[in-house]
Amino acid sequence: MSLTSSSSLDTIASRTDVFDNGSYPTALLRIKAESRFNNVNTIPPPKPLLIGTPSCLKGGEFPVLLMLHGYILSNNFYSQLIHHVASHGYVVIAPQLYSVAGPDSRDEIHATAAIIDWLSKGLKDVLPSNVQPNLNKLALSGHSRGGKVAFALALKKETTSPLKISALIGIDPVDGMGEGNQTPPPVLTHVPQSFDLNGMPILVIGSGLGEIKKNMLFPPCAPKGVNHENFYEESQNPAWYFVVKDYGHLDMLDDCTNGVRGISTYCFCKNGESRQPMRKFVGGVIVAFLNAYLQGDHTHLISIRDANLTIPVMFNKVHVRM
């Protein structure tokens, strides 16, 4: 694809299948916390960041998605998913919230609020000069425990977001070890549609294998009673819910995840045969959801609901409350 024809770029973007990479070339930026920058006026972020951004010659203004990693995972493990979403015209920011953590996620909630506060002060200075973030279109997402943190901040537990969150996404979110064993601060109330988010649209993605043990040595990674099903049940309208059959809790990660933690992502959770289909679906449905609620184009999201697209996975369940 030529980068010199901006008009053809826009035309291709409107036709691109959300489950394929989009028409924008992308770049991955690694921004250290408390770094010194060449520009003395640039404010460093409070946590290290992995940023996926469109990198076309035309540039432009793009909505922003903040993506929180799962328990003791690296933000680098989501690089293929970040590329996918960014290629459809979004700036994706994935912080490394911690290296080691206990059961309490309060520090992560406060850290996420601090990162959102930084967005309006420092984000534009670390992006390519022709890329402008549109913070009036800010979505918050999280995987696993990161999903719990995202919901907690949106629900104003512990602290509030310094910027308005326009859409909320839980990627196989988990709120503890099992029913009656939630980790602090608890998010789920087990009261249907109890999440009062003032009409904020919600997408919940669930894994069909997440609640199944891989073996007798380890508990399930997304136990019943504290998983995607409960997050959707407690979400108020509008809420979209997709449970993917035959794929596991970590199957949206990169194909190759390095190091001891990376190897462990294949050991602790029950997995599908390949990560690519689940990752393509997660990336595609996130793009379709953001297109609907940040850009006003529901075409792809409704087509996914109605199975009018070629979808890379099969569903256990699809449910929508408008």
UniProtKB/TrEMBL annotation:
* Keywords associated with the record: Chlorophyll catabolism, Cytoplasm, Hydrolase
**Primary location:** cytoplasm
Please give the superkingdom of this protein's source.
Eukaryota
Q: Which GO terms describe its biological process?
A: chlorophyll catabolic process
Which SUPFAM superfamilies does the annotation name? alpha/beta-Hydrolases (SSF53474)
Its annotated compartments are: Cytoplasm, Cytosol
Family in the record:
Belongs to the AB hydrolase superfamily. Lipase family.
UniProt name for this protein: chlorophyllase
